[in-house]
Inverse folding.
């Protein structure tokens, strides 16, 4: 099984990245991060036996390390990935995998020159069993031909835990590049679109005038050769909700629809991974929490076999082409306009 190294623990998504790979039998040789970001304490609690290195070159120069996991400050992730690929490592990075068109071009060039894998862990798909189950049903024809997706990505601001970079667009890439990339990824997968365009986009800062660099609302209208999509993301999750956000995905087909309530069913059933399906034969709810999560296993096989089963490389590039384009053309409203 693979040997891992971790570079950058600026975001808590690193917990899921590393836990997912360890669960399939990988081992982590060490981790490095710059300074003492807030997630360090949680990382140490979760992975107490993994040593911390004082120089990231110990990871990059180690011939035993196959895959580098990255969750640095978003603006630094592309450079960290390029450095790792140049050192002969494959990469799994947190989203956003890049924050500018220049970075995306450099990532494309590096992948082409080195033949290494640049993979983004879209956790709202790869770490949610209900998404696996929905894809299975759709591939079985349960709702006919997919026509549209509606992806909702509300998040809790958690201001007290956020570092300074979180409130700066030049560090995060903006809300559509960041959390909007999740919904773009799902749109492409569920509609089967190979090509797509951003029809319209909006970003805004309506609730945080003291932080003009923060975008707390965003939306995208997207059209592909396999269907249409709408995306809404925000940082408005109210305190009464028991988790960080009521993330949902609705997939409309010609013969029915599926709605995923990924993390909570408000005033309804307990737990996560709620799948509702309505078609010509069914109108009911599934608990999809036991569905498979194949991404981590498939990525390990791709690193070993030089295949693209976890996620085609072109798909990963295409998500960020669209996310960056949405961010570029977005109408700006509110305090950040």
């Amino acid at each position: 099984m693979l040997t891992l190294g971790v570079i950058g623990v600026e975001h808590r998504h690193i917990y899921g990245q590393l836990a997912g790979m360890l669960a399939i039998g990988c081992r982590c040789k060490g981790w490095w991060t710059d300074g003492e970001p807030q997630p360090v304490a949680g990382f140490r609690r979760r992975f107490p036996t993994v040593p911390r290195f004082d120089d990231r070159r110990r990871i990059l120069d180690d011939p035993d390390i196959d895959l580098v996991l990255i969750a640095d400050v978003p603006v630094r992730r592309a450079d960290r990935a390029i450095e790792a690929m140049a050192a002969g490592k494959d990469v799994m990075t947190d989203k956003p995998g890049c924050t500018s068109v220049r970075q995306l071009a450099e990532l494309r060039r590096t992948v082409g020159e080195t033949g290494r894998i640049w993979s983004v862990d879209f956790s709202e798909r790869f770490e949610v069993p209900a998404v696996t189950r929905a894809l299975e049903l759709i591939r079985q024809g349960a709702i006919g031909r997919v026509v549209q997706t509606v992806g909702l990505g509300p998040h809790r601001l958690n201001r007290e835990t956020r570092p300074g970079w979180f409130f700066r667009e030049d560090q995060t890439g903006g809300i559509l590049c960041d959390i909007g990339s999740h919904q773009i990824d799902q749109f492409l997968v569920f509609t089967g679109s190979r090509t797509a365009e951003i029809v319209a986009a909006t970003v805004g800062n309506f609730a945080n005038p003291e932080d003009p660099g923060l975008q707390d609302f965003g939306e995208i209208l997207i059209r592909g050769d396999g269907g249409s999509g709408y995306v809404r993301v925000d940082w408005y999750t109210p305190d009464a909700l028991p988790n960080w956000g009521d993330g949902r995905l609705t997939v409309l087909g010609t013969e029915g629809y599926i709605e995923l309530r990924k993390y909570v069913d408000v005033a309804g059933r307990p737990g996560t991974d709620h799948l509702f399906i309505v078609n010509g034969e069914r109108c009911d709810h599934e608990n999809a929490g036991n569905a498979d999560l194949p991404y981590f296993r498939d990525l390990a096989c791709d690193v070993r076999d030089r295949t693209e089963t976890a996620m085609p490389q072109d798909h990963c590039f295409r998500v960020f082409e669209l996310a960056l384009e949405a961010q570029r053309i977005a109408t700006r409203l509110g305090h950040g306009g």
User: Anything to note?
Assistant: The longest strand covers residues 196-205. The CA atoms of residues 30 and 58 lie 9 Å apart. The chain has eleven helices and 14 strands. The mean pLDDT is 97.
